[in-house]
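From the pipeline queue, job 12 of 40. The input is one protein chain; the requested action is below.

Action: predict structure.
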Amino acid sequence: MNRLAQFLQYTGKVFGLKGLFGRVRDGRVEPRVPVLPLVVCLVLGVVMRIGSYFDLAQQTKSRRRWRHLCGLKAPVAHEIFAYATERMNPEDWRQNQVQVVKELKRNKALESCQIKGLLFLSIDANEHFASFSRTCPRCCQRQVEVLDPQGKKVKVTQYYHRYVFAHLGGPKLNVVLDVEPILPGEDECAAALRLLGRIRRLYGPRFFDGVTADGWYAKGPFLRSLDKLGWLWIVVLKREDMDVFREAVQLSEGHQPSAQFRDEQRQRQVQLWEVKELHFSDGYTKGKSVQVVLSDESWTEHTVEGGKKISQARQSRWMWVACEGLSGYAPEVVYHGGHRRWGIENQAFNELTQGYHLTHCYHHDPTAMLVQMLILIFGFTLFTAFALHSQLVRVGELTRKALAHELDLALEADLPWNLWFHAG
């Protein structure tokens, strides 16, 4: 069967794709191009990994069947995509993402992401765009050193955008629930709390069980807020100047590990020490203790240098601070939950950057940038769900990049594409 037709049938049947597209609004007055064809174009552009509004406009110009599928009567200039996304409501795209991700959970697709029955949400920030000349009212600013024409170091202002991402990941499925821009002069934790508060409202307080984050979030007020939101938490502990760090190291020295095992997925030998009932900081809620899990990991690294295979023994130590609510679980839960945070780097940021043009600024306008980011995670989730549904991808006979290419080639088939979204 035609691969693109499979994708459209699957997403239509499972997620009600046509209804989701029809939910999106924009604020244009008497538009020349209706919003629905533009929405279909924008989402298909993500699924087929088209990297700019200019390239998307070229699709509408050079491919008649693309126009038929999207319901376009004529080619669309790239300025129309920019103008329309400026006037779209980000909440419409967030609601679409909520419906898709909730359907995935109902279909048990998120079970592979669980750790001993617990589902952890990873949060982290990623830089989206940086420039020395292009700027907007929502740009953050920083001073960076560059070389002037004479070769001297000078400080200049750089403008950039950053977003906090919320990610659910596992060995089989990776989805981004939502994103939140970091405003100029704002702390990353403030944007993260705004993001988590909205996720709690949209997805419900029990959609996942806990939050895992990098050492940047190991701050009393932030962790206190997570307690109030009703979630468990695991945060990397890096700062050696913190009392809880020093106490955990001292109390674990000279003791036998609480657990020893081989992590087959990461190919490492692991020893864990667990230290409970520690005081985190004065900024954390009084009367509540925390636990710290230390992990010593060893493995053999194989490299090739000058045509020769070289094996070297490697070691690393990790530390995590976890909430009191996890004290009843084995330390392996904190270990796996702590390392699960890397999924947002390896399986979200890296994949979205390399395959989906995450860091490309399609149109430098705050609303358009946020809308395009939400379209990106929406299209990525649809494609990921379809790839999980594909047996060839599951058994490793077809890569996701090759699957996206097959979707693009399938559009050349002589099928009634005009009937998918614009009939009836």
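Job complete. The chain has a mean pLDDT of 93.
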